[in-house]
Amino acid sequence: MKSVVPSEASQKSFPEPGSGIPEINFRQISEESPVAIYTCDINGMITYYNRAAANLWGRSPELGTERWSGCKKIFFPDGKPVSPEECPVANTLKGDVSAGKQEILIQRPDGSVKNLMVHPKPLQDSSQKITGVHVTLIDISEQQTQHVRQETLSAIVESSDDAIISKDLNSRITSWNSGAERIFGYKESEVLGKSIMLLIPDSRLHDEDLILKNIRNGRRIHHFETIRKTKNGKEIPVSLSISPVKDKQGKIIGASKIARDVSYRWEVEEKQAMLSAIVESSDDAIVSKDLHGNIMSWNFGAEKIFGYTEEEAIGENITLLIPKSRLAEEKTILTKIRNGEKIDHFETVRRHKTGRNIPVSLTVSPIKDQQGNIIGASKVARDISAQVKAKTEIEKHTRNLEIINSVGKSISENLDLQGILQKVTDATTKLAGAAFGAFFYNNVDEEGESFRLFTLSGAPREIFDNMGMPRHTSVFKPTFAGKEVIRVDDIRKDPRYGKNLPNRGMPSGHLSVVSYLAVPVISKSGTVIGGLLFGHPDSGMFKLEHEEMVVNIAAQAAISLDNSRLFEQVKSLSDKKDEFIALASHELKTPLTTIKGYLQVLSKIEKDQMSELFLNKSLYQVDKLNSLVEDLLNMSRVEAGKLEFNLEVFDLREMLLDIAETFIYSTKNHKLFYDFGNVPAIIEGDKQRIEQAITNLMNNAVKYSPGADKVYLNLKVDPQSAVISVRDEGIGLNEEQQRHLFTRFYRAESTKGISGLGLGLYLTREIIDRHHGKISVKSKEGEGSEFLFDLPLKEPVQRAGEAAE
Ligand code: ADP
């Protein structure tokens, strides 16, 4: 340290010599003082400083050369630099009365900072004139640091989410922060001085004794998890950290306690525990794997489904579970997972430890770390064997129902015996899952053989041809005589039939029958129509459900077979009737032609008026009779499929003109209105038959409109067809009548009094059909009818423009 040269003023001794008061050497006192003191002259030049000042500044300024302060860097407490003009010394010299004590910061040459309280005092001469400044500097750095620390601590305590509470050794609360208020619900004023027991539920009272014992022994308690009670009585989980509080002498006077509300953590832990329990108790396999497919976790469900224990599976690659043919799936799954995508209910197949394949439904989701990076995948695999089985079962039942439905429909619509039996045999063989099935028709054939093989399914007929008719054997008899169903899992082992196996007589390698099912088909009258027999080379193939299905169909088949038999009988009667009509009309035709010939000869001979009238009436009646017989003949030709046509190409429009002309001459009570357009309608057909069809419709129009007097005949030529319509304003037909109109011998009730055979429309439709046309009727009872039919044109009609080219 440099030698300090005190100023003249400071060298003065006080009190004055000779004042009687012992003289004090101020300079010496000042020099020894722990308080930093320095003086400046009127110019601010430092004139004196003591050791303490030099220590504080960290340097020793040269007296008489430096001004204001021994430290070069001075700041206001907020860090702003203090310029010489505004420093406390300058202000005091200026006579600034407000320049009292002031806090400043100085930075010492070594960089350290000190907080100073500056006390500048003006030095005045006897005339009160300021001659300099006397400055006391008090180092308040330590206080300041303490203060800041205190403030910081208070702020921390106040802003803490945790409850920070202190208490004395009698458990009385001595401080309480806002975290404590938030957690426990009490305000500071409500709890200060109260016992900490306030927060402890009865069940935990012993906690406090334990805590106090530790505290008294100077021990800290870390993260002690217990339960505390809030103001409204709610118990909450807390984690306590308790430290002893000591006085300056180190004596323990109480404890500070940090209570953290760990409800959330407990909840999370509870949830985790719950999740773990769920995972463990799940029937699904819940597995996690890393992004390379290595198994990281494995639950009990996984063990149950895939057969590997947790120990065996963890660390292995997930491909352990994937059948070779499906290995590519894992690549796709991992790619999706890396892209953050989820795979939902992906139905596939996985492999059991034993190598067995298991159908599973997979849901795979990415697993993310706290930063959201994908680190693996969780996979839930559900064994869907049962569903797959159920689905297959349902599909099987649906298929069976479809078969039953279609067989039921087709046999009920079918009257052909052979057709019905074949359908029934095919369908039941399929439904029973049989390797083959046969229907034995219980009929007596011409040779007196009462069992005749009728239909077969799944096996060539020759096999049964070689087999003969085993009707009297014990295996067949019950079906055809005893009327009972026989269902045997292994007929070879059945003592009832063992000696008479259905295999007997079969070529080797063919149709070995092990499973056997036989169902009789019984008619309504109770007679056995026949039997359905099924075989399979494996045992136990036919179950009760198969038996029930076959029995059901057999019952339906019985009805159809009964119908078919009836139909056969009716048909044969009807065939006989048709034969008779054909014969009778043919036989009638010959004498009629002869009578007409003689009448025509007679008409040429001269005769009186009366004879002329009778002759004409006879000729008219003969023509009518002839046309009736002709209709009958034609009908029997249609039925026999022998109605012949002579095709030629002609203009239908011309024909209609002729028909119209004849009609106008021959019809007295009805007026004809017609429109045939002006385009020819060239068709290919039997001219005579088509004329017959049109005339028939025209005659009906007249015949069935006795109260009306108009008939309309029109032709419309479309590009592809000619459409002819015949309309009347007569009695008309209701819908029911319209439905039956074209059946042979049908005559509407309402037209009873009008003569006819009910064959005209039947033949007309046959003629139109055979010409590839279509006939229809529009009619309203009491208003009239319109019959329309179309015939395809031989040459499509050219439009006016096209024809001109
Ligand atoms: P028919 O006239 O000999 O009885 P059709 O086959 O020509 O035989 O006609 C069958 C039945 O259809 C007739 O008996 C009649 O009841 C009804 N029918 C036919 N044409 C008409 C019509 N234009 N108006 C009302 N009913 C008709």
Set down the secondary structure blueprint.
Blueprint: H1 8-11, H2 26-32, E1 36-41, E2 46-49, H3 51-57, E3 73-75, H4 88-93, E4 102-107, E5 113-124, E6 130-139, H5 141-159, E7 163-168, E8 173-176, H6 178-184, H7 188-191, H8 205-216, E9 221-229, E10 235-246, E11 252-261, H9 263-281, E12 285-290, E13 295-298, H10 300-306, H11 310-313, H12 327-338, E14 343-351, E15 357-368, E16 374-383, H13 385-413, H14 417-432, E17 436-442, E18 451-457, H15 461-465, H16 477-482, E19 486-488, E20 515-522, E21 528-536, H17 544-604, H18 609-639, E22 648-651, H19 652-666, E23 671-675, E24 682-685, H20 687-703, E25 710-717, E26 721-728, H21 735-740, H22 760-770, E27 774-780, E28 784-792, H23 800-804
Parallel strand pairs: 23-25
Antiparallel strand pairs: 1-2, 1-6, 3-4, 4-5, 5-6, 7-8, 7-11, 9-10, 10-11, 12-13, 12-16, 14-15, 15-16, 17-18, 17-21, 19-20, 20-21, 22-24, 25-26, 26-28, 27-28
Helix pairs in contact: 13-14, 13-17, 14-17, 17-18, 18-22, 19-20, 20-22
Bound molecules: adenosine-5'-diphosphate.
